[in-house]
UniProtKB/TrEMBL annotation:
Keywords: Membrane, Transmembrane, Transmembrane helix. InterPro entries: CCB3/YggT (IPR003425). This is YggT family protein. GO terms for cellular component: membrane. It holds the Pfam family CCB3_YggT. The chain crosses the membrane at residues 7-28, 54-75. Belongs to the YggT family.
Length: 88
């Protein structure tokens, strides 16, 4: 049971870092058009899309990835609490 918890925690952390990497790629011209950028976009964009519907970009700044990362953090905390309740 603890192994499942650790795997899910690592997966959520990895996904959070993937979002951060995808955000940072927007600072470099042509980075999102590279093969790595396209793969990362296919992984990250389906998760970011619902957040962009509710939080439109303000000028050149898109705050939806920040809210998406906060949602992942809440999911990690909730997952930890759930496993803690199940184990004790």
């Amino acid at each position: 049971m603890i192994e499942l918890h650790n795997i899910l925690q690592y997966a959520l952390t990895f996904y959070m870092y993937a979002i951060i990497g995808y955000i940072l790629m927007s600072w470099f011209p042509g980075a999102r058009e590279s093969s790595f950028g396209q793969i990362l976009g296919k992984i990250v964009e389906p998760y970011l899309e619902p957040f962009r519907k509710f939080i439109p970009p303000l000028g050149m700044i898109d705050f939806s990835p920040i809210v998406a990362i906060f949602a992942l953090q809440f999911a990690k905390v909730g997952l930890s609490q759930l496993f803690q309740m199940l184990l004790f």
